[in-house]
Amino acid sequence: MTRHLLIIFGGLSALAKIIVVTSGKGGVGKTTTSASFATGLAVRGYKTAVVDFDVGLRNLDLIMGVERRVVFDFVNVIQGEATLRQALIRDKRYDNLAILAASQTRDKEALTIDGVQRVLEELAKEFDYVVCDSPAGIEHGAYAAMYFADEALVVTNPEVSSVRDSDRVLGLLSSKTRKAEQGEGTVREHLVLTRYNPARVAKGEMLSVDDVTDILAIPLLGIIPESQAVLNSSNQGVPVVADTETDAGSAYADMVARFLGEERAHRFVEVEKKGFLGRLFGT
Amino acid sequence: MDWMKLFRSERKNSAHVARDRLKLVVMHQREGRGAGPDWLPRLREDLLAVVRRYTEVADDAVHVRVQHDQGVDLLEMNIALPEEERGGSVSKAGST
User: Fold this and answer.
1) Of A70, A146, B45, B81, whose Cβ has the fewest other Cβ atoms within 10 Å?
2) Which tens digits make up the pLDDT trace of A177-190?
3) How close is the nearest chain A Cα to the Cα of B28, in Å?
């Protein structure tokens, strides 16, 4: 009995968890979320790799501040032009964190499912978590990013087109992933509501958290307030979670804690809970 | 927050409009996936054509879905009639 349990446990812990950050719609905060989520996991002591799947429009390197260190990329590794070790960029600020950049010049078809699988399996040997930053849309790149996922962060803005696209993506997660195709269970879905503005919600000008969770019907992992801090940190190539003094930074830190199983009440839901700066700058 | 509610009811609440529109769109979107046989979308199209022989309805007026409940497959149809036809604006039918 005990022996069986041990074997099962060992089998599970040897594999990294693969998490796709996806949304359908562009510009809702996928890369911002990928960068902060991966950095947050690394800060908490987990070996984490974050992979940019947006071939042709790479940006994760810029958000992570490693754009000048990209020598080889994801496609180079898939095509055998570089080893994973050569292409992985080890973050200088966080020991546990590594970044794999997307190719800026190839086309999306270069991400073959076999190739992606080989790279993810190799990453899974070294890392506890592999975060896949999906491109926008529901074409090949997005499909490749979600195919091997164990869990998904569905990044959504409280806005009609974003919610509709997120629902489309949820449909794909339940049918077009390896788990779905091979009957290995379901991809665990989490809602990350970004660019939330409680003041506008109170005025009836923006969909509320309840509206969005009601429509999408997946568990809420985090609410990230619309924040000046996001642009400030992307300007500097620092993930916003690095500064937990900021509203968005602390919201991302909370999100990571919840992902790791901690109980944390959602903040930034009500106007009253905004800090002085938030009141001053929130529109 | 109660005074806010009063405030809200006096002006057009665009968030409520957004929520209601989204609910319809998403319901429609979900019919095409996952649960249910693959003839479901065609049934929906046929039903829409039949309803349109009698009255004008929008493209998304007809909803069909199959639910599995305690070992029984239930086919649920929802047909939303246009405003002027109100008298029972939504008709529902279920069959096993």
Assistant:
1) B45
2) 999 989 888 999 99
3) 11
A188 CA to chain B: closest CA distance, Å?
A: 16
Distance CA A65, CA A57 (A): 16
Checking ipTM against 0.90, whether it exceeds it is: no
pTM of the model: 0.80
Please indicate if any CB of chain A lies within 8 Å of the CB of B30: yes
Q: Would an 8 Å CB–CB cutoff place A217 in contact with chain B?
A: no
Residue in the structure block whose two tokens are 């930053």: A133
CB A239: neighbour CB atoms within 10 A? 31
A206 touches chain B (CB under 8 A): yes
Task: State the pLDDT at residue A280.
Answer: 61
SS3 (DSSP) at B70: coil
Partner A contacted by B35 (CB < 8 A): no
Which value, to the nearest 10 degrees, does the dihedral of the CA atoms of residues A33, A37, A40, A46 take? -160
Closest CA to A94 of A43, A146, A140, A46: A43
| Token pair in block for residue A134 | 């999906």
Is A204 in contact with B11 (Cβ distance < 8 A)?
yes
Residues 6+ apart with CB under 8 A from B27: B63
Residue of B nearest to A165 (CA): B26
Written as tens digits, the pLDDT of chain A (283 aa) is 344 443 334 333 457 999 999 999 999 999 999 999 999 999 999 999 999 999 999 999 999 999 999 999 999 999 999 999 999 999 999 999 999 999 987 777 889 999 999 999 999 999 999 999 999 999 999 999 999 999 999 999 999 999 999 999 999 999 899 999 898 889 999 999 999 999 999 999 999 999 999 999 999 999 999 999 999 999 999 999 999 999 999 999 999 999 999 999 999 998 865 555 655 665 4
Please give the Cα distance from B62 to A159 (Å, whole number).
25
Q: Is B4 on the interface with A (CB under 8 A)?
A: yes
Task: Count CB pairs under 8 A between chains A and B.
Answer: 53
**Count of residues in chain B:** 96
